[in-house]
Design goal:
By secondary structure, this protein is an alpha/beta fold. It contains 15 helices and eleven strands. The chain folds into two domains: 146 residues, NAD(P)-binding Rossmann-like Domain (Rossmann fold), CATH 3.40.50.720; 224 residues, Orthogonal Bundle (Rna Polymerase Sigma Factor, Chain: A), CATH 1.10.1740.10. The radius of gyration is 20 Å and the shape is globular. The structure holds NADP nicotinamide-adenine-dinucleotide phosphate.
Length: 400
């Protein structure tokens, strides 16, 4: 096991100068809740959302960052008109805007919480600039894990995982990464793991209703198909330098154990906590110190008894198997997996395809793909775009 980056922060002092990419999303909002409890420890330099400028405005008025980011020029103009006369942040927009925010000279920490492949460019830029990157955008690692690993080493950029499973493993392994034999990622199983529903009848409303976590739409559907766990297996491979055979998945419907590590001597260490993203986020924000989060204290295990565990059903949930196979097939297969999944999830949310079409589309696209070397950001973008087009074309032939 070899961690993706060095663990020595370039600037461990508080207050930490922070850029939040995706502040209007579920992770962004949880991050701001943690920061609200520790305002003296953080200085918010930039907040970026995409379309929800009402929420971004609310956040901006609260923290008055020097920079704001949105998806389009029109939204930037609209936001500017809503600002009070005594506040003049620089409003950046579009892909270039997110890239510029990710490399702001004054920033020590960049929190990458945009959703999907849109997060890749800014994440790479932040790593390239040697920032400490708090990574929620798992798609970045799925698409470009190798590239991020190389850049992080070269630029001494520290990467801190926000995903609860990877954050749990990170907490449990320090400082003994090299003595790890295996990791066990837990999965809630999502809303359908033991359901007898006909999967063709599943609607977006059903699938968005996660039993334990409150999350954005895309990751909620990924959790329902178990693709989220598949993406996390790939994420874990890149973060911890482990082969697929050393990354196990187990269904744990209570979501209290966030993951486990098996050490060489047979000891298993687990991290437990309420299913609330504020806990892993606060660990990464305060790293290597812990920040106080009073309301999450004291997990009364007697109230959650029994804790149960099951093997994942790869026939019922083929997406996990597809992600494991893509990881073994190589980086370009992971790009295809991710792009086909993003399009399939989008189409399912728009009720253009049914729930079972999600794995079907991904499997077909993967089957047609010829492995190719991935050496640059541009190669990834081209393959990503090409796959999106092919997935959309194939989806037109499917009947909902
Ligand atoms: N939610 C969780 O508990 C959780 C846990 C672990 C990992 N993650 C990962 O964290 C990332 C964010 O998840 P989330 O649940 O917070 O998602 P979310 O609630 O959907 O938020 C996504 C954020 O990205 C912005 N955005 C959407 N489309 C964009 C685009 N095309 N370009 C730039 N920005 C765009 C959104 O802005 P607007 O809303 O303003 O449009 C929002 O700020 C994902 O990669 C997810 O897998 C999430």
């Amino acid at each position: 096991m070899e961690y993706i980056s060095s663990l020595a922060l370039k600037n461990p002092d508080f207050p930490r100068k922070l850029v939040i990419l995706g502040s209007t999303g579920s992770i962004g909002q949880s991050t701001l809740k943690v920061i609200a409890k520790h305002q003296e420890k953080f200085s918010l330099l930039a907040l970026a959302g995409a379309r929800n400028i009402e929420l971004l405005l609310e956040q901006a008025l609260c923290y008055r960052p020097k920079y704001l980011g949105v998806l389009t020029k029109e939204l930037a103009q609209k936001l500017k008109k809503l600002l009070p006369s005594d506040y003049h942040p620089q409003i950046l927009w579009g892909e270039q805007g997110y890239l510029d925010l990710a490399q702001l000279e004054e920033a020590d920490f960049v929190l990458s919480a945009l959703v999907g492949a849109a997060g890749l460019g800014p994440t790479l830029k932040a790593v390239e600039k040697g920032k400490s990157v708090l990574i929620a955008n798992k798609e970045s690692l799925v698409l470009a894990g190798e590239l991020i690993r190389k850049l992080a080493k070269k630029q001494k950029s520290v990467i801190l995982p926000l995903d609860s499973e990877h954050n749990a493993i990170f907490q449990a392994t320090q400082p003994h990464f090299e003595q790890v034999k295996k990791i066990i990622l837990t999965a809630s199983g999502g809303p359908f793991w033991n359901s007898r529903l006909d999967f063709k009848q599943i609607t977006p409303k059903h699938a968005l209703k996660h039993p334990n976590w409150s999350m954005g739409a895309k990751i909620s559907i990924d959790s329902a198909t178990l693709m989220n766990k598949g993406l996390e297996v790939i994420e874990a491979h890149h973060l911890f330098g482990l082969e697929l055979s050393s990354i196990e998945v187990v269904i744990h419907p209570q979501s209290l154990i966030h993951s486990l590590v098996l050490f060489q001597d047979g000891s298993h260490l687990a991290q437990l906590g309420f299913p609330d993203m504020q806990i892993p986020i606060s660990y990464a924000l305060g790293y290597p110190r812990r920040l106080e989060l009073t309301e999450q204290c004291n997990l009364d295990l007697t109230k959650f008894s029994p804790l149960t565990f099951y093997p994942p059903d790869l026939e019922k949930f083929p997406c996990l198997r597809l992600a494991q196979e893509a990881l073994q097939a190589g980086q370009s297969h992971c790009v295809v997996l991710n792009a086909a999944n993003e399009i399939a999830v989008e189409l399912f949310l728009k009720e253009k395809i049914n729930f079972q079409h999600i794995p079907l589309l991904i499997e077909e696209l993967l089957a047609k793909h010829q492995s190719m070397p991935i050496s640059s950001f541009e190669t990834i973008l081209n393959l990503d775009q090409e796959t999106r087009i092919k997935t959309l074309e194939r989806a037109k032939e499917l009947k909902c």
